[in-house]
Amino acid sequence: QVQLVESGGGLVQAGGSLRLACAASGRTLSSLVMGWFRQAPGKEREFVGNIRWSSGITQYAAPMKDRFTISREYAKNTVYLQMNTLKPQDTAVYYCAAAFVGQAYTYWGQGTQVTVSS
């Protein structure tokens, strides 16, 4: 089992920045891929990006690649999503998820709301 708890959401003006955190606990994290997803009202959940816990290799969805950065901090078992130059269309509930390499995302956090005002 893996437990995930997100934090750091809130209200920000367009052009601003936020950093979300996802604290993980449970099984050995080194074999996990940690992902970030988001779901806007009335839309399907979409992939934002992920990071391999062991190597730190990241990948991003194309629309977020230039503005979002995912990182991890071993000492705190925490993964971060740094979001810059936020736009109103970034408004969504952001979720952290975990998957074993090559498998589907099985573990999900409760989500944190990000609202970007124009």
Describe the structure in your own words:
- The strands form 2 sheets. Strands 2, 4, 5, 6, 9, 10 and 11 form a 7-stranded mixed sheet that branches. Strands 1-3-8-7 form a 4-stranded antiparallel sheet, with no helix packed on it.
- The chain is mainly beta.
- β7 and β8 form a beta hairpin.
- The protein contains no helices and 11 strands.
Query: Runs with pLDDT <50, length 5+?
Result: none
* H-E string: EEEEEEEEEEE
On the 0 to 100 scale, the average pLDDT is 94
Give the oligomer, counting copies of the same chain as homo and different chains as hetero: single chain
If you compute it from the alpha carbons, what radius of gyration comes out, rounded to the nearest whole angstrom? 13 Å
Give a quick account of the main beta sheet: strands, pairing sense, barrel closure: 7 strands, mixed
Termini separation comes to: 40 Å
Short overview:
The protein has 118 residues and is mainly β. The protein is built from no helices and 11 strands. The relative contact order is 0.32.
Summarize the topology.
Blueprint: E1 2-7, E2 10-13, E3 18-26, E4 32-39, E5 46-52, E6 58-60, E7 68-73, E8 78-83, E9 92-100, E10 107-108, E11 112-117
Parallel strand pairs: 2-11
Antiparallel strand pairs: 1-3, 3-8, 4-5, 4-9, 5-6, 7-8, 9-10, 9-11
